[in-house]
Amino acid sequence: MKYRPLVVASDGVRAMMESALTARDRVGVQDFVLLENYTSEAAFIENLRKRFKENLIYTYIGSVLVSVNPYKDLEIYTKNHMERYRGVNFYEVSPHIYAVSDNAYRSMRTERKDQCILISGESGAGKTEASKKILQYYAVTCPASEHVQTIKDRLLQSNPVLEAFGNAKTLRNDNSSRFGKYMDIQFDFKGAPVGGHIINYLLEKSRVVHQNHGERNFHIFYQIIEGGEEDLLRRLGLERNTQQYQYLVKGNCPKVSSISDRSDWKVVRKALTVIGFNDDEVEELLNIIASVLHLGNVQYSEEESYTHITSDIQIKYLAR
């Protein structure tokens, strides 16, 4: 004969257990490993849907973080949130990009081995934003000194510059990265960031001369036209009208409601200074950008068996 102990739950404990089960039904599980039907694709998607509906955009698969772009601002990236994830066990708090960031950082410190965070997803999934959140986390939580703060600022300000010259509005995403990026951040023995190295590859250069309908060229062209000071535009021989430039009208989409080219220009101009470009280097860089716009407006005419250029103004600026 076997004796089975009788367990009697109080009303409070029973209510708590029922509440937990109800919450789980509503918001899903925070780790797909805990799914009862873990081999079902439908169950996987349904769990994502439940969490997304409750503004829970992060879910684990073990140590892998799945993120769903909410396409809106969520109050989950404050300094208080950063402190919440700082130095705690990976599964101790709810899934977050900060947990991945902190886990990689602590593994580097304790194991003395290089760490790598791989961000993958389709266009518009939020890869660029995820990389920015990781950098912001390290900028706030890592040890700092005057020199280190300068390095942190440069790492953070590299993003608006990279986006200006490498991102564009596409049919799927208003700020789509048209290039791949590998960012290497170096830390000293105290765990403070002391340098960084960014390698970009596969830049979509064809976008400079042609854009599909509903898409734009790289942000920097529109930023200069819309945000550049009058004196700057005069020196570059540019007009404050994107419709005047052949390389900016192919997609018939000069304006984007979610983008303020004028404001973004100020951010990029400041970022170039923070990164270390002096005024002469910035001027040279903008001369190249303006030259591309002028080159797109060069016109040709054919007479008999030869072709000649008919637009002297563009050639004058290009030569200069």
UniProtKB/TrEMBL annotation:
Keywords recorded for this protein, A-Z: Actin-binding, ATP-binding, Cytoplasm, Motor protein, Myosin, Nucleotide-binding, Repeat
List of residues binding ATP: 121-128
Pfam short name (any one): Myosin_head
Annotated InterPro entries: Kinesin_motor_dom_sf (IPR036961), Myosin_head_motor_dom-like (IPR001609), P-loop_NTPase (IPR027417)
SUPFAM superfamilies: P-loop containing nucleoside triphosphate hydrolases (SSF52540)
Ranges where the Myosin motor domain occurs: 28-320
Matches recorded under PROSITE patterns: MYOSIN_MOTOR (PS51456)
Subcellular location(s) per record: Cytoplasm
Predominant localisation class: cytoplasm
UniProt record similarity statement: Belongs to the TRAFAC class myosin-kinesin ATPase superfamily. Myosin family.
Name of the protein described by the UniProt record: Unconventional myosin-Ic
Species of the source: Xenoophorus captivus
Lineage: Eukaryota, Metazoa, Chordata, Craniata, Vertebrata
